[in-house]
Design a protein that fits this description.
This protein is mostly beta strands and 134 residues long. It contains one helix and eight strands.
């Protein structure tokens, strides 16, 4: 007669349970690059300088981490997420952090300078998906 040991019983019970251990998911880069800030409020100014990110698609159920830095000793910019079709702002951030869209849509980023006479700076940005374990 076979009598299972404790390890066999626990392994069987765990295999049959609805509990699963999910490994943490790595983040995926959605968009990144360098643009000039939005001191001139056009995505492409008269001198052909790019001042907005390329459009990217977000999902309603998604979570996105937005990070940026501005060159210059004394500068501060805020990130604006805008609907690519209408140009309407759908989200605003003062600091790096997460964004959970209310709907799936095509969006782009621009970066507004917030210190007087400190516009026309280069902004390096990166948008990634959030970690599942956060």
């Amino acid at each position: 007669m076979y009598i299972p040991n404790l390890q066999t019983v626990l392994a069987s019970g765990l295999a049959l349970s609805p509990f699963t251990i999910k490994p943490p998911q790595a983040t995926s880069e959605i968009s990144s690059g360098s643009v000039l800030d939005f001191a001139v409020e056009k995505c492409l100014d008269a001198d052909q300088n790019v001042r907005c990110s390329k459009p990217f698609l977000v999902e309603k159920t998604g979570c996105y981490n937005i990070e940026w830095s501005t060159d210059g000793t004394f500068s501060h910019t805020t990130a604006e997420v805008k609907d690519a079709a209408s140009g309407e702002m759908v989200f605003y951030r003062d600091t790096n952090g997460e964004w959970k869209p209310k709907k799936g849509e095509l969006v782009y980023l621009d970066f507004k300078p917030k210190i007087a006479l400190q516009g026309n700076k280069t902004v390096d940005y990166k948008v990634t998906t959030c970690n599942d374990d956060e």
